[in-house]
Write a structure and sequence with these properties.
Elements: E1 2-3, E2 25-31, E3 36-42, H1 43-59, H2 65-87, H3 91-98, E4 102-110, E5 120-125, H4 136-144, E6 151-155, H5 169-177, E7 186-189, H6 197-203, E8 207-209, E9 213-219, E10 222-228, H7 240-243, E11 252-256, H8 263-268, E12 273-276, E13 285-286, E14 290-291, E15 305-309, E16 312-316, E17 334-342
Parallel strand pairs: 4-17, 5-6, 6-7, 7-8, 10-11, 11-12, 12-16
Antiparallel strand pairs: 1-4, 2-3, 3-9, 5-17, 9-10, 13-14, 15-16
Length: 343
């Protein structure tokens, strides 16, 4: 079902980068010699419910256990954990570890994958938290510049903090995106660290944001659908049924969701591949025990690596960046290069 391969697994071709329209309300039509990518998109309309939820949270009218616990963790646990790591003399080591992302190559097999998409390559970036560490953007850009996927997907958490300004995110994210050479461009969803206002700014960098919607990628007479839902962990605005409204039932479907907590609903909806992040594979992993925090309401087997639920395959990436503290132990930051193949 899944196999590791060397960098030589993927060809050394250099397809051109396709930049997507930066406007907030637009029609996108991109035609390639062997594929077609077309969709109508109204970002502001789709973000309106998310904005209402954020406003209710900010005013205190709406409480959310996940969001509240994260804020408390940052205010209380962060200084305590930092002090413990510094007293133990391993804080700087954790910082160095966090600046050494690895590229992981995966080959995932599917019986129902259309023949024209056999070998389709997806670059998966998640949990960049790109403003949390100086130098990370440059390192990630260097790691991915020679990968040349067919499509790049990003599954949320672009900033480090939960609240506050995001100005430092965009120039660093732009640096990373400048090294993405994908002939179908880049599509992305929001995470629990991200606010709705970030979606428009990220689209201005050439990324197609999916807010509970789907896009079709065509090759000849066949197609593959990419579905993106809002963060299922904190905001309660994920709408998989709505996102699938115009997707043919028998289509091959790739779901982008920030958290794997959507696993059961996704499998029941006929998703073929679910790509997510959020967990950081624990970020701080102890020998024999593994990650001490999961921060997700789902069984542990769905919180990292490749997994299966029913007929659906899933992959929870360990992520590129860090949250809480810019450190990693026994858990290297991960960039995933995924090849879809037919059984």
């Amino acid at each position: 079902m899944v196999g590791m391969s060397s960098a030589e697994l993927f060809g050394a071709g250099h397809p051109a980068v396709t930049q997507l329209s930066p406007s907030l309300e637009h029609h996108i039509a991109m035609i390639h010699s062997d594929s077609e990518f077309e969709v109508t998109h109204d970002l502001e309309k789709r973000l309106a419910p998310r904005r209402a939820i954020e406003a209710a949270m900010s005013s205190g009218a709406l409480k959310h256990a996940h969001k509240d616990s994260l804020v408390i963790r940052e205010r209380i646990a962060r200084p305590i954990l930092r002090a413990i790591l510094k007293i133990a003399g391993i804080y700087s080591r954790g910082v160095r570890n966090a600046l050494q992302p690895v590229v992981r190559y995966l080959r995932l097999e599917f019986e129902d994958l259309p023949a024209t998409f056999d070998g389709f390559r997806i670059l998966h970036l998640t949990d960049l938290h790109i403003d949390g560490m100086d130098g990370l953007a440059e390192i990630v850009a260097d790691r991915i510049t020679d990968l040349h996927p067919d499509l790049c997907v990003m599954t949320g958490d672009y900033r480090f903090e939960l609240v506050g300004p995001c100005d430092a995110v965009y120039p660093r994210l732009q640096m990373v995106l400048s090294s993405v050479h994908a002939d179908q461009g880049t599509v992305a969803v929001l995470g629990n660290h991200d606010e709705s206002e970030m979606a428009g700014e990220i689209e201005r960098l050439g990324v197609r944001m999916l807010i509970n919607e789907a896009i079709e990628i065509r090759r000849g007479e066949t197609s593959l659908w990419v579905i993106g839902v809002d963060d299922p962990h904190c905001y309660g605005f994920d709408d998989l049924d709505g996102a699938l409204e115009n997707v043919p039932e028998d289509a091959f479907k790739v779901l982008l969701a920030h958290s794997p907590e959507i696993f059961a609903e996704a499998a029941a909806a006929g998703i073929d591949l679910c790509l997510c992040g959020h967990i950081h594979a624990g970020q701080i992993r102890l020998p024999l025990i593994g990650g001490i925090l999961s921060n997700a309401d789902c069984p542990r087997r769905y919180t990292q690596d490749v997994w299966q639920h029913g007929s659906m395959l899933g992959y929870t990436c360990a992520g590129v960046g860090c949250s809480l503290l810019p450190v990693r132990y026994n858990c290297p930051p991960e960039i995933a290069m995924i090849e879809l193949t037919r059984k």
